[in-house]
Design goal:
- It is built from 2 helices and 4 strands.
- The protein has 83 residues and is of the alpha+beta class.
- It folds into 2 domains: 50 residues, no CATH class; 33 residues, no CATH class.
- The mean pLDDT is 88.
- It is elongated and about 60 Å long.
Length: 83
């Protein structure tokens, strides 16, 4: 799943409403939207810069090439970054 700023903004607004115990008015949402968008951008940037994905060995994979090279499993743990 891609990191989606618009969805994160909605989730942060929902969190504000839950913690306040009340639904924010349209004007309140407009007032805090720039702050919430900045928070969402900072969170996404942090995850992209610092997140690590670790993949276990033994996961089935398919590759291109000869018939012998087209199927197999990962042979060891793999570590990647989030983009």
């Amino acid at each position: 799943m891609a990191l989606n700023k618009d969805i994160l903004v909605l989730e942060i607004v929902s969190l504000f409403e839950t913690k306040r115990g009340t639904v924010l008015s349209t004007q309140q949402k407009l007032d805090i939207n720039p702050l919430i968008e900045s928070i969402a951008e900072a969170v996404i940037s942090h995850i992209i810069a610092n997140g690590v994905v670790t993949v276990a060995s033994g996961i089935a994979v398919a590759t291109t090439g000869t018939a012998a090279a087209q199927a197999g499993t990962t042979t060891g743990p793999g570590v990647g970054s989030i983009a």
